[in-house]
Design goal:
It contains no helices and 11 strands. The protein is mainly beta and about 120 residues long.
């Protein structure tokens, strides 16, 4: 199995910053895509940012210019640097990783972390 463990959430004032981390472990051969999603109360889970193994990143329009996704392939870790946080960024943030286990032809995996709460409030 592949496990994802997030860290770095918390309470921050509007305009503040947070950095989320997510480390993947287990029987991993390669991770192609890593990303962050979020779910606010009463809303569907939505994509925040994703990044390929080669470093190409995509962002939701609502976070462009404020959030930066990055990854350390050697550590199987993805980060989300968030600045200029707004109350509407309040949500549970989930890490996602997609790749292959064991070998180049091994089974695919699509794993999720347990989520970390980000609350933006004064």
């Amino acid at each position: 199995q592949v496990q994802l463990v997030e860290s770095g959430g918390g309470l921050v004032q509007p305009g503040g910053s947070l950095r989320l981390s997510c480390a993947a472990s287990g029987t991993i051969f390669s991770i192609n895509m890593m990303g962050w999603y979020r779910q606010a109360p009463g809303k569907q889970r939505e994509l925040v940012a994703v990044i390929t193994k080669g470093g190409s990143a995509s962002y939701a329009d609502s976070v462009v210019g404020r959030f930066t996704i990055s990854r350390d392939n050697a550590k199987n870790t993805v980060y989300l640097q968030m600045i200029s946080l707004k109350p509407e960024d309040t949500a549970v943030y989930y890490c996602n990783a997609q790749g292959r286990r064991y070998s180049p032809s091994g089974p695919l995996f699509n794993s999720w972390g347990q989520g970390t709460q980000v609350t933006v409030s004064s």
